[in-house]
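We read letters as residues; the fold follows as tokens. Both lines appear below.
***
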Amino acid sequence: MPEPLSLDSTPKLSAMFRLQWEEAQNCHVLLYPEGMVKLSGSAGEILKRVDGQTSVSGIVDGLKAQFPGVPLDADVLKFLEVAHDNGWLRFV
């Protein structure tokens, strides 16, 4: 059974997905062979920080620096869990 997601976990995009800004959609998207996932603004901000080297804690710290005063720890963890469950992410 895999370890539960924690602030020490390090997420990485799954190999079949690519994050990019899509001008036509005016948002970040995840591209994959069968299509595209249109991301909300907050999802795009989180996934922009997923590089396979930065821990969840580092991602949260970066977001807190960009959006001071916003309590977002639990929301970031929840989104990363959903992204993992959807196969978008793996943890290294």
User: Anything to note?
Assistant: The domain at 12-86 is CATH 1.10.10.1150 (Arc Repressor Mutant, subunit A). The two ends are 15 Å apart (CA to CA).
